[in-house]
Amino acid sequence: MAKLNSTEWIWRDGEFIRWQDATVHVLSHSMQFGSSAFEGIRCYSTPRGPAIFRLEDHLQRLLNSCRMYRMEMRYTVDELVAANCELVERNGMDACYLRPMVIRGYGAAGMVPFDSPVEVYLPCWPWGAYLGDHAMENGADTCVSSWHRMAPNTTPSMAKIAGNYLGGQLIKMEALANGFDEAIALGPDGMISEGSGQNVFIVHRGTVYTTPLNGTLLPGITRDSILTLARDAGLEVKEMPLQRDFLYAADEVFLTGTASEVTPVRSVDKLTIGAGRMGEVTRMLQRTFLDVAHGRADDKYHWLCHVRAERAVAT
Ligand SMILES: Cc1ncc(COP(=O)(O)O)c(C=O)c1O
Protein backbone atom coordinates (compact mmCIF):
# COMPACT_ATOMS: atom_id res chain seq x y z
CA MET A 1 0.00 0.00 0.00
CA ALA A 2 1.22 3.50 -0.75
CA LYS A 3 0.53 6.25 1.75
CA LEU A 4 1.09 9.84 0.74
CA ASN A 5 4.41 11.37 1.75
CA SER A 6 3.81 15.09 1.98
CA THR A 7 6.12 17.69 0.48
CA GLU A 8 6.17 21.39 1.29
CA TRP A 9 4.61 23.15 -1.67
CA ILE A 10 1.69 22.72 -4.04
CA TRP A 11 1.13 25.00 -7.03
CA ARG A 12 -2.44 26.32 -7.17
CA ASP A 13 -3.55 28.55 -10.01
CA GLY A 14 -0.28 30.39 -10.41
CA GLU A 15 0.94 30.55 -6.81
CA PHE A 16 2.65 28.19 -4.41
CA ILE A 17 0.72 27.29 -1.28
CA ARG A 18 1.65 25.03 1.63
CA TRP A 19 0.76 21.34 1.31
CA GLN A 20 -1.66 21.52 4.25
CA ASP A 21 -3.45 24.55 2.77
CA ALA A 22 -4.44 22.75 -0.45
CA THR A 23 -7.95 21.96 0.75
CA VAL A 24 -11.32 22.07 -1.00
CA HIS A 25 -14.93 22.37 0.20
CA VAL A 26 -16.74 19.08 0.82
CA LEU A 27 -19.43 20.19 -1.66
CA SER A 28 -17.04 20.99 -4.48
CA HIS A 29 -18.36 19.54 -7.72
CA SER A 30 -15.45 17.13 -8.16
CA MET A 31 -16.05 15.68 -4.69
CA GLN A 32 -19.73 15.11 -5.42
CA PHE A 33 -19.50 13.91 -9.00
CA GLY A 34 -15.96 12.64 -9.71
CA SER A 35 -15.27 15.40 -12.21
CA SER A 36 -11.55 16.05 -11.71
CA ALA A 37 -9.16 15.55 -14.60
CA PHE A 38 -5.71 14.48 -13.53
CA GLU A 39 -2.35 13.06 -14.57
CA GLY A 40 0.29 10.83 -13.03
CA ILE A 41 3.85 11.68 -14.08
CA ARG A 42 7.24 10.51 -12.89
CA CYS A 43 10.30 12.63 -12.36
CA TYR A 44 13.54 10.64 -12.42
CA SER A 45 16.92 11.27 -10.90
CA THR A 46 19.44 11.62 -13.74
CA PRO A 47 23.10 12.66 -13.95
CA ARG A 48 21.81 16.10 -15.02
CA GLY A 49 19.49 16.39 -12.03
CA PRO A 50 15.75 15.71 -11.91
CA ALA A 51 14.07 15.03 -15.25
CA ILE A 52 10.32 14.67 -15.82
CA PHE A 53 9.37 11.85 -18.20
CA ARG A 54 7.23 12.88 -21.20
CA LEU A 55 5.91 15.90 -19.33
CA GLU A 56 4.46 17.62 -22.40
CA ASP A 57 2.65 14.46 -23.51
CA HIS A 58 1.08 14.06 -20.09
CA LEU A 59 0.01 17.70 -20.00
CA GLN A 60 -1.44 17.45 -23.47
CA ARG A 61 -3.47 14.44 -22.32
CA LEU A 62 -4.62 16.51 -19.33
CA LEU A 63 -5.77 19.31 -21.61
CA ASN A 64 -7.58 16.77 -23.80
CA SER A 65 -9.34 15.34 -20.74
CA CYS A 66 -10.46 18.87 -19.79
CA ARG A 67 -11.65 19.55 -23.32
CA MET A 68 -13.82 16.42 -23.37
CA TYR A 69 -15.48 17.47 -20.11
CA ARG A 70 -15.83 21.11 -21.20
CA MET A 71 -13.54 22.34 -18.43
CA GLU A 72 -12.08 25.66 -19.38
CA MET A 73 -8.32 25.43 -18.93
CA ARG A 74 -6.59 28.75 -18.42
CA TYR A 75 -3.03 27.51 -18.79
CA THR A 76 -1.07 26.35 -21.81
CA VAL A 77 1.14 23.28 -21.91
CA ASP A 78 4.21 25.55 -21.80
CA GLU A 79 2.97 27.36 -18.69
CA LEU A 80 2.24 24.06 -16.97
CA VAL A 81 5.67 22.70 -17.95
CA ALA A 82 7.29 25.71 -16.27
CA ALA A 83 5.07 25.39 -13.19
CA ASN A 84 5.81 21.67 -12.77
CA CYS A 85 9.55 22.25 -13.07
CA GLU A 86 9.43 25.00 -10.48
CA LEU A 87 7.36 22.72 -8.23
CA VAL A 88 9.98 19.96 -8.33
CA GLU A 89 12.76 22.41 -7.58
CA ARG A 90 10.92 24.26 -4.80
CA ASN A 91 10.19 20.99 -3.06
CA GLY A 92 13.85 19.97 -3.34
CA MET A 93 12.84 16.77 -5.13
CA ASP A 94 15.09 14.60 -7.22
CA ALA A 95 12.92 11.61 -8.05
CA CYS A 96 9.21 12.06 -7.41
CA TYR A 97 5.67 11.53 -8.70
CA LEU A 98 3.63 14.47 -9.98
CA ARG A 99 -0.15 14.55 -9.88
CA PRO A 100 -1.55 17.58 -11.78
CA MET A 101 -5.26 17.95 -11.01
CA VAL A 102 -7.90 20.10 -12.60
CA ILE A 103 -10.96 20.18 -10.41
CA ARG A 104 -14.37 21.78 -10.42
CA GLY A 105 -14.65 23.59 -7.11
CA TYR A 106 -17.50 24.86 -4.94
CA GLY A 107 -20.58 26.45 -6.53
CA ALA A 108 -22.79 24.11 -8.54
CA ALA A 109 -25.46 22.37 -6.47
CA GLY A 110 -26.27 19.67 -8.98
CA MET A 111 -24.58 17.69 -11.68
CA VAL A 112 -24.41 20.53 -14.23
CA PRO A 113 -20.95 21.83 -13.43
CA PHE A 114 -20.79 25.29 -14.91
CA ASP A 115 -21.37 27.22 -11.67
CA SER A 116 -18.25 25.65 -10.18
CA PRO A 117 -14.89 27.30 -10.88
CA VAL A 118 -12.18 25.25 -12.59
CA GLU A 119 -9.12 25.13 -10.33
CA VAL A 120 -5.67 23.70 -11.09
CA TYR A 121 -3.46 22.07 -8.48
CA LEU A 122 0.03 20.66 -9.03
CA PRO A 123 1.25 18.46 -6.17
CA CYS A 124 4.25 16.14 -6.15
CA TRP A 125 5.66 13.67 -3.65
CA PRO A 126 8.22 10.86 -3.44
CA TRP A 127 6.82 7.51 -4.61
CA GLY A 128 8.69 4.24 -5.12
CA ALA A 129 7.75 1.16 -7.19
CA TYR A 130 3.91 0.97 -7.35
CA LEU A 131 3.69 -2.82 -7.16
CA GLY A 132 6.81 -3.03 -4.99
CA ASP A 133 10.49 -3.59 -5.77
CA HIS A 134 9.88 -7.32 -5.49
CA ALA A 135 7.38 -7.28 -8.38
CA MET A 136 9.72 -5.19 -10.56
CA GLU A 137 12.18 -8.09 -10.53
CA ASN A 138 10.17 -11.20 -9.74
CA GLY A 139 6.82 -10.32 -11.27
CA ALA A 140 3.32 -9.63 -10.02
CA ASP A 141 0.73 -12.29 -9.29
CA THR A 142 -2.43 -11.28 -11.11
CA CYS A 143 -5.94 -12.49 -11.82
CA VAL A 144 -8.53 -11.70 -14.44
CA SER A 145 -11.08 -9.43 -12.80
CA SER A 146 -14.76 -10.21 -12.57
CA TRP A 147 -15.31 -6.49 -13.20
CA HIS A 148 -15.22 -5.34 -16.81
CA ARG A 149 -13.92 -2.04 -18.14
CA MET A 150 -16.38 0.50 -19.46
CA ALA A 151 -17.91 0.08 -22.91
CA PRO A 152 -16.85 2.55 -25.62
CA ASN A 153 -19.12 5.58 -25.80
CA THR A 154 -20.17 5.36 -22.16
CA THR A 155 -17.53 7.63 -20.65
CA PRO A 156 -14.46 8.50 -22.73
CA SER A 157 -11.62 6.14 -21.88
CA MET A 158 -9.12 8.59 -23.38
CA ALA A 159 -9.90 11.05 -20.60
CA LYS A 160 -8.04 10.54 -17.36
CA ILE A 161 -10.89 11.63 -15.13
CA ALA A 162 -11.56 10.65 -11.51
CA GLY A 163 -14.94 9.03 -12.25
CA ASN A 164 -13.30 6.50 -14.56
CA TYR A 165 -11.35 5.19 -11.57
CA LEU A 166 -14.37 3.73 -9.77
CA GLY A 167 -14.03 0.67 -11.99
CA GLY A 168 -10.28 0.60 -11.37
CA GLN A 169 -10.86 0.64 -7.61
CA LEU A 170 -13.24 -2.32 -7.80
CA ILE A 171 -10.79 -4.22 -10.00
CA LYS A 172 -7.86 -3.56 -7.66
CA MET A 173 -9.72 -4.16 -4.39
CA GLU A 174 -11.10 -7.47 -5.64
CA ALA A 175 -7.57 -8.54 -6.62
CA LEU A 176 -6.16 -7.62 -3.21
CA ALA A 177 -9.06 -9.26 -1.35
CA ASN A 178 -8.30 -12.49 -3.20
CA GLY A 179 -4.57 -12.34 -2.47
CA PHE A 180 -3.34 -11.07 -5.85
CA ASP A 181 -1.14 -8.04 -6.49
CA GLU A 182 -3.07 -6.74 -9.49
CA ALA A 183 -5.88 -7.65 -11.88
CA ILE A 184 -6.34 -7.56 -15.62
CA ALA A 185 -9.81 -6.53 -16.71
CA LEU A 186 -11.68 -7.55 -19.83
CA GLY A 187 -13.66 -5.18 -21.98
CA PRO A 188 -17.41 -5.51 -22.57
CA ASP A 189 -16.66 -7.84 -25.51
CA GLY A 190 -14.78 -10.26 -23.26
CA MET A 191 -11.41 -9.38 -24.80
CA ILE A 192 -8.44 -8.17 -22.74
CA SER A 193 -8.62 -4.47 -21.90
CA GLU A 194 -6.15 -3.30 -19.22
CA GLY A 195 -5.13 -3.47 -15.58
CA SER A 196 -6.55 -1.20 -12.87
CA GLY A 197 -3.87 1.37 -13.70
CA GLN A 198 -1.71 -0.26 -16.37
CA ASN A 199 -1.76 -1.36 -19.97
CA VAL A 200 -1.11 -5.02 -20.74
CA PHE A 201 1.54 -6.57 -23.00
CA ILE A 202 2.00 -10.20 -24.01
CA VAL A 203 5.10 -11.72 -25.57
CA HIS A 204 4.49 -14.82 -27.66
CA ARG A 205 7.16 -16.48 -29.82
CA GLY A 206 9.22 -13.29 -29.92
CA THR A 207 6.35 -10.99 -30.98
CA VAL A 208 5.15 -8.24 -28.66
CA TYR A 209 1.36 -7.88 -28.49
CA THR A 210 -0.83 -5.28 -26.87
CA THR A 211 -4.50 -4.42 -27.09
CA PRO A 212 -5.61 -1.70 -29.51
CA LEU A 213 -7.08 1.64 -28.42
CA ASN A 214 -10.69 0.51 -28.54
CA GLY A 215 -12.50 2.86 -26.19
CA THR A 216 -12.14 0.63 -23.11
CA LEU A 217 -8.63 1.59 -22.00
CA LEU A 218 -6.45 4.59 -21.33
CA PRO A 219 -3.92 5.24 -24.10
CA GLY A 220 -0.91 4.95 -21.83
CA ILE A 221 2.14 7.07 -22.40
CA THR A 222 4.31 4.25 -21.09
CA ARG A 223 2.51 1.92 -23.52
CA ASP A 224 3.43 4.25 -26.35
CA SER A 225 7.05 4.42 -25.10
CA ILE A 226 7.31 0.63 -24.96
CA LEU A 227 5.83 0.21 -28.44
CA THR A 228 8.46 2.67 -29.71
CA LEU A 229 11.34 0.99 -27.88
CA ALA A 230 10.23 -2.49 -28.97
CA ARG A 231 10.09 -1.44 -32.63
CA ASP A 232 13.49 0.25 -32.24
CA ALA A 233 14.89 -3.02 -30.92
CA GLY A 234 13.71 -4.75 -34.10
CA LEU A 235 10.93 -6.70 -32.44
CA GLU A 236 7.71 -7.44 -34.26
CA VAL A 237 4.90 -5.51 -32.55
CA LYS A 238 1.17 -6.10 -32.96
CA GLU A 239 -1.69 -4.02 -31.59
CA MET A 240 -4.71 -6.28 -31.93
CA PRO A 241 -7.69 -7.64 -29.98
CA LEU A 242 -6.39 -10.28 -27.56
CA GLN A 243 -8.50 -12.97 -26.02
CA ARG A 244 -8.19 -13.84 -22.34
CA ASP A 245 -6.75 -17.31 -22.99
CA PHE A 246 -3.77 -15.75 -24.78
CA LEU A 247 -2.56 -14.68 -21.31
CA TYR A 248 -2.33 -18.31 -20.17
CA ALA A 249 -0.45 -19.39 -23.30
CA ALA A 250 1.95 -16.42 -23.24
CA ASP A 251 5.72 -16.72 -22.92
CA GLU A 252 5.79 -13.40 -21.07
CA VAL A 253 3.24 -10.89 -19.79
CA PHE A 254 4.04 -7.44 -18.46
CA LEU A 255 2.20 -4.32 -17.34
CA THR A 256 3.09 -0.74 -18.20
CA GLY A 257 2.17 2.54 -16.56
CA THR A 258 3.73 5.63 -15.08
CA ALA A 259 3.43 4.29 -11.55
CA SER A 260 4.15 0.64 -12.44
CA GLU A 261 6.78 1.46 -15.11
CA VAL A 262 7.44 -1.96 -16.71
CA THR A 263 6.37 -4.69 -14.27
CA PRO A 264 6.61 -8.35 -15.23
CA VAL A 265 3.67 -10.66 -14.51
CA ARG A 266 4.57 -13.92 -12.83
CA SER A 267 1.17 -15.54 -12.85
CA VAL A 268 -2.38 -15.03 -14.04
CA ASP A 269 -5.18 -16.81 -12.16
CA LYS A 270 -2.51 -18.90 -10.40
CA LEU A 271 -1.17 -20.21 -13.71
CA THR A 272 2.55 -19.52 -14.01
CA ILE A 273 3.59 -17.43 -17.00
CA GLY A 274 6.57 -18.83 -18.92
CA ALA A 275 9.31 -19.94 -16.56
CA GLY A 276 7.79 -17.99 -13.63
CA ARG A 277 10.42 -15.26 -13.74
CA MET A 278 11.00 -12.13 -15.78
CA GLY A 279 11.35 -13.10 -19.43
CA GLU A 280 14.13 -11.90 -21.73
CA VAL A 281 12.02 -9.50 -23.78
CA THR A 282 10.45 -7.96 -20.69
CA ARG A 283 13.88 -7.57 -19.10
CA MET A 284 15.31 -5.89 -22.18
CA LEU A 285 12.36 -3.48 -22.50
CA GLN A 286 12.30 -2.72 -18.77
CA ARG A 287 16.04 -2.00 -18.81
CA THR A 288 15.89 0.12 -21.95
CA PHE A 289 12.93 2.10 -20.61
CA LEU A 290 14.56 2.73 -17.22
CA ASP A 291 17.89 3.61 -18.85
CA VAL A 292 16.24 6.33 -20.91
CA ALA A 293 14.15 7.55 -17.96
CA HIS A 294 17.20 7.75 -15.67
CA GLY A 295 19.28 9.54 -18.33
CA ARG A 296 21.67 6.60 -18.74
CA ALA A 297 20.85 6.08 -22.42
CA ASP A 298 20.50 8.38 -25.40
CA ASP A 299 17.20 10.26 -25.12
CA LYS A 300 16.64 10.25 -28.86
CA TYR A 301 12.93 10.95 -28.64
CA HIS A 302 13.40 13.90 -26.24
CA TRP A 303 11.27 12.26 -23.60
CA LEU A 304 13.06 13.89 -20.69
CA CYS A 305 12.32 17.40 -19.50
CA HIS A 306 15.41 18.36 -17.50
CA VAL A 307 14.12 20.53 -14.68
CA ARG A 308 17.23 22.65 -14.22
CA ALA A 309 17.76 23.29 -17.94
CA GLU A 310 14.08 24.20 -18.29
CA ARG A 311 14.30 26.56 -15.30
CA ALA A 312 17.48 28.17 -16.66
CA VAL A 313 15.67 29.00 -19.93
CA ALA A 314 12.58 30.25 -18.06
CA THR A 315 14.49 32.69 -15.80
C1 LIG B 1 -6.44 2.96 -16.19
C2 LIG B 1 -5.03 3.18 -16.61
N1 LIG B 1 -4.57 2.54 -17.69
C3 LIG B 1 -3.30 2.70 -18.12
C4 LIG B 1 -2.43 3.55 -17.44
C5 LIG B 1 -1.04 3.75 -17.96
O1 LIG B 1 -0.93 5.04 -18.48
P1 LIG B 1 0.44 5.82 -18.46
O2 LIG B 1 1.46 4.93 -19.04
O3 LIG B 1 0.19 7.02 -19.29
O4 LIG B 1 0.73 6.16 -17.04
C6 LIG B 1 -2.87 4.22 -16.31
C7 LIG B 1 -1.98 5.12 -15.57
O5 LIG B 1 -2.08 6.31 -15.69
C8 LIG B 1 -4.20 4.05 -15.89
O6 LIG B 1 -4.66 4.68 -14.81
Please characterize this protein's 3D structure.
This protein folds into 2 domains: 117 residues, 2-Layer Sandwich (D-amino Acid Aminotransferase, Chain A, domain 1), CATH 3.30.470; 146 residues, D-amino Acid Aminotransferase, Chain A, domain 2. It has 9 helices and 19 strands. The termini are far apart. The model has no long low-confidence stretch (mean pLDDT 97). Bound molecules: pyridoxal-5'-phosphate (PLP).
Kindly give the count of domains: 2
Within the CATH hierarchy, at the fold level, what is the topology of the largest domain?
A: D-amino Acid Aminotransferase, Chain A, domain 2
Structural class: alpha+beta
Q: How many E-type strands?
A: 19
The succession of helices and strands, N to C, reads EEHEEEHHEEEEHEHEEEEHEHEEEHEH
Mean pLDDT: 97
Helix content: 25-40%
Uncertain runs with pLDDT below 50, 5 residues or more? none
Strand content: 25-35%
Q: Looking at the structure, what is the overall shape?
A: globular
Largest sheet, if any? Answer: 9 strands, mixed
Please report the number of helical segments.
9
Bound molecules: pyridoxal-5'-phosphate
Q: What is the CATH superfamily label of the largest domain?
A: D-amino Acid Aminotransferase, subunit A, domain 2
What's the architecture of the largest domain in CATH terms?
Answer: Alpha-Beta Barrel
* CATH top-level class of the largest domain: Alpha Beta
Q: Terminal Cα separation, in Å?
A: 39 Å
Radius of gyration: 19 Å
